[in-house]
Amino acid sequence: MDNSLRGAAAIVGAGVYGLGETPGQASVEIMARAALTALSDAGLDPSDVDGVISASPVYNMASMTAAEYLGIRPRFTESTMLGGSSFVFHVTPAALALQAGLCDVVLICYGSNQRSATGRLISNSLPDPYEAPYNPRMPITAYALAASRHMFQYDTTREQMAEVAVAARGWAALNPEAFVREPLTIDEVLSSRMISDPLSKLDCCLVTDGGGALVMTRAGLAKDLPKPPVYVLGHATEHWHRSIAQLPDLTITAATESGRRAFEMAGLGPTDVDVVQLYDAFTINTILFLEDLGYCKKGEGGAFVSEGRIGPGGSLPVNTNGGGLSCCHPGMYGIFPVIEAVRQVRGEAGARQIDDVDVALAHGNGGVLSSQSTLVLGSANTL
């Protein structure tokens, strides 16, 4: 593998806006406020930006919408839509464009008012003709299928999946930005209303408003900006299917490949990572991705997350912001694992900060376990 991209680009700004409920604001306004927050964090203005990347379930020309609203005339633009993993993937074209000299400062941004506008997930996806006759409730039906298969094949239990939700809530309690911070027990998860067997309401992510943004530049330029650069060490994206009916094995995702290639580029492995941020749209996601990214063997994810291992005080900090299960999930969650990874590497995570973080992993998931994007970030100590 060509490792010339390792450490060549850095994230120099990160920001969020309106996590939870922001009534009366359009998605583009939420996005713009998050973008301005990230630019301020980087010590930059919109006039410094010459690359814009975005994706949205509402605006099908998302980067043009974002640039227009912010008054930016970019030299480089990108709007690849891979579902919730899009923004983890977007780090790759940003790094390539920066390396090629196509631009100097890239803004990656997203915003949604899904909770205050509709109260439900917004999707422009057409139903799959082979699945539609069964009247599935997408996307939850797809994830319930994966959970059911994992339970059948590996004896994973609902209690083990509930451990994921409880761990996420434990981290959310330490995060003042998290939408839901009240204590949660395994029994409360198990007794919550069944949505799509075996996934109950508390196995499912939130539906919130919110926006997030990242600012990237070349490593050489990053050193002149106010905050410590967080370097892009490895990144990869893989997808094998679009509809869940086409996934060959419901218990194995393309994260097996995106993770392997991202670690290979970084020259690191799972045990080198200090903190892990995963796209937890449902509790089964965390179990699948910990297996597929190499933290435990296939089928051992349920046992791996048990007894508080991934919660506060556990041996592997996972989703330290509270994740999509308890912090926020404004339709497409992928930018938020990256933002939390950046904050952890910088040492800016407050009460939930993990000591001495040099390497952080952010992983995005899109569609119905469809697109998988893995990102390895590091401090200056990793170069």
Tell me the strand order in the biggest sheet: 3-2-4-7-1-8-11-10-9
> Which structural class do the helices and strands define?
alpha/beta
Number of strands: 11
What's the Cα radius of gyration? 19 Å
Tally of discrete structural domains: 2
- Shape descriptor: globular
The CATH C-level class name of the largest domain? Alpha Beta
Mean pLDDT across the residues is 96
- Unreliable stretches covering 5 or more consecutive residues: none
State the distance separating the first and last CA atoms. Answer: 18 Å
- In terms of DSSP E residues, the strand content is 15-25%
The percentage helix is 25-40%
CATH superfamily of the largest domain: Thiolase/Chalcone synthase
- CATH-derived topology of the largest domain: Peroxisomal Thiolase, Chain A, domain 1
- What is the CATH-assigned architecture of the largest domain? 3-Layer(aba) Sandwich
Provide a count of the helices.
Answer: 14
Largest sheet: 9 strands, mixed
Order of helices and strands: EHEHEHHEHHHHEEEHEHEHHHHEE
Topology:
Blueprint: E1 9-20, H1 27-42, E2 51-54, H2 62-70, E3 76-78, H3 86-89, H4 91-100, E4 105-112, H5 114-117, H6 140-154, H7 158-172, H8 186-191, E5 194-196, E6 199-200, E7 209-218, H9 219-222, E8 230-239, H10 255-266, E9 275-278, H11 283-292, H12 301-304, H13 323-326, H14 335-346, E10 359-366, E11 371-378
Helix pairs in contact: 1-2, 7-11
